[in-house]
Amino acid sequence: MILEANPTREVKLQDIKILDYLSDEEHALIEEHAHTRYYKKRSILFHEGSINSGIYIVKKGVIKTYKVGPYGRYYIIGLMKPGDIMAYHSLFSNRSVNNTSAKACEDSEVCYIPNSIVTKLLESNWSFTKKMMELISSDVNTSNTFLTGFVQKSLRERTAELLLSLKEDFGVDEFGGLQLRITRKDLACMVGTVPESLIRVLADFKRERLVDLVSRKIIFLDTSELRKLANI
Amino acid sequence: MILEANPTREVKLQDIKILDYLSDEEHALIEEHAHTRYYKKRSILFHEGSINSGIYIVKKGVIKTYKVGPYGRYYIIGLMKPGDIMAYHSLFSNRSVNNTSAKACEDSEVCYIPNSIVTKLLESNWSFTKKMMELISSDVNTSNTFLTGFVQKSLRERTAELLLSLKEDFGVDEFGGLQLRITRKDLACMVGTVPESLIRVLADFKRERLVDLVSRKIIFLDTSELRKLANI
DNA sequence: CGAAGTTTTGAGAAACCTCAACCGATGTGG
DNA sequence: CCACATCGGTTGAGGTTTCTCAAAACTTCG
């Protein structure tokens, strides 16, 4: 049995929801000025603190955004998948400095749109702007909700929660296998722990028949029990 | 010696930075539709999950915004002071549901502006909108930065960091005393711990002559050492 | 002044981290 | 195509941090 972890996922610009709010002319403007960039697995899109003058829309692949904390350890803020927008902060920050770093988890394709173009669209199209603000403010909420859970949940609960959210975001194949290839270290960085601790929790989950682990593949066996455990 | 913890702090609408971007007419529109609300210490402004159709601008006092996690413990997202804007999420969320709860830490005064008015301003005034987006996206960054630090810093480091940021936000009197009256429990909720643990850290700081503690008053003795400790 | 809420301390337990070693997979160059 | 190097995964032992529970002392406010 072959368990393929990385099915090709791809979206076209016209399939990206937030761009629905644009007129044909505006779409044309984007087509004219945006360009596609290709990133090999493990290559860096941008670094936290570096100057950036455009936004990125993921078309294919998976990109992790992260921040490096003291002691050099890093925390993964999110895994961006096709349709997701990155680096929008640079639109408004006067210094256009990136708040996070971004790295390709697999070979990826992103659409880069210069800030000047996006700003033009925002200025002229209120429903687009409103959608954008909604998106950003929901990111605030996501962070705060996560933080609230984080400060009082055990690693076990957080890990269950992470697995469920990965299932939600990336889906599973016919055998219940998560459609995402990700290292233990990255999983650990997403729940704010070290790989050793994460591995122990996963091993517990396997022992309890909540998931199965076949090399790097995670197979969901009992989602409803996981959900109880996650305490969402 | 009298150590007064709560000097009257107050701002007028015209002193609020984000409103600088409005024209005289727009200011008039706000004056017409906004109204001031008064909240007694410990009273609730709004609850997470409840419907809300306006934004709040703090004019006087201190308001804490917080979320309740599983097990009923809560996490304080921020202390809002005069000039700060709350509940902006309700502007964009289609259901206008509050993401956080808000409670007055002392007798406070806030200006309530209905969403319909704010939306009108956003639609017609791009620099105001831009400023607003900047504000929101900087909140995203604040949360993520905090989260990144949180997941890998010790309680001691986080507490040092909290004290410094309170000093920054609320200032100190001539004796180095923090101009904010706050309970140990609230301090604990801001660094994601329980009061007992926070108290022990504060007691350590006192023993090390970094701060002095006179009842609920926190007096800064060695800010630079605290800064080293906070590892920012 | 007294009730209620808040702060402090202590003891013990639990969760999680660190370090170190080892295994297994993956990839690379001769 | 194999040997080796590298990286990721796993396990164990031991230590540290932080939490829980309980009791006592102190503040605040009506």
Which helices and strands, and how do they pair?
Two copies of one chain form a homodimer.
Chain A: H1 24-33, E1 35-39, E2 44-46, E3 54-60, E4 63-68, E5 74-80, E6 85-86, E7 101-104, E8 108-114, H2 115-124, H3 126-152, H4 155-170, H5 184-190, H6 195-207, E9 211-214, E10 217-220, H7 223-230
Antiparallel strand pairs in A: 1-8, 2-7, 3-6, 3-8, 4-5, 4-7, 9-10
Helix pairs in contact in A: 4-7, 5-6
Chain A binds a DNA duplex (30 and 30 nucleotides) through residues 154-156, 183-185, 193-197, 199-200, 203, 215-216.
Question: How is this structure best described in words?
Answer:
The structure is a homodimer of 232-residue chains. With 232 residues, chain A is an alpha+beta fold. Chain A is 39% helix and 21% strand. The first copy, chain A, is built from 7 helices and 10 strands. A 4-stranded antiparallel β-sheet of chain A has the order 1-8-3-6. In chain A, α4 packs across α7 and α5 (184-190) crosses α6. Chain A starts with 23 loop residues before the first helix and ends with a helix. Chains A and B meet through β5 and α3 of A and β5 and α3 of B. Chain A binds a DNA duplex (30 and 30 nucleotides) through residues 154-156, 183-185, 193-197, 199-200, 203, 215-216.
